[in-house]
Amino acid sequence: MTKDDILQVAIPMLYQKGILCFSLNEFLQVHHISKGSFYHFFNDKDTLVYEALCRDNQNYRYKTERELYTLKSLESKMCKIFEVYCVDNAYNRQLCKFYEDMFLYAITSQNTLFMRYIQNLKEHTHYLILQSIESTQISKAKKGKMRDLSEFLSLGIDGFWLLQSVMGKTWEEKNVEVKHLIQSLCVFVRQKDSKI
Which pTM does this prediction carry? Predict the structure, then answer.
């Protein structure tokens, strides 16, 4: 099995099991990967998880960027970027749960690989937000204001979701709150330039 093969089969199991319950021994057994093959490509479980998540995030960025250019409004583009929070389906719920656990694990363990992954995720999200702003028909002043907000948005919505989780809100409540946040930001952008 190649490194690419291992990374490809790791993602579904990671999202299904969650970062805390993902067992390297179970993963190797289920996918018939010898420990020698695994350790030829990866130092440990954390390295596998980090590289698999980075690859999945890169694929998400490319796919989402292509789709953004088919959308007209800033709101629809923002909802596309944060689709995992805005569209209620089993996969998105599973993914949200995974990322909640991963963020909490990264923060509490101070694991440098996962902290680096969060930075990587933030950079990809920031890029997508900037692409959304630049490809939307709004004034230069509004684009400038949104670019200023884009740094916050790139991790702010993820942080907002996580905060809602810590507060014990249900998925449905968090879903509504994130949609309201995105709508409010888009209303802000649609205001007259003199109010900015």
Answer: 0.80
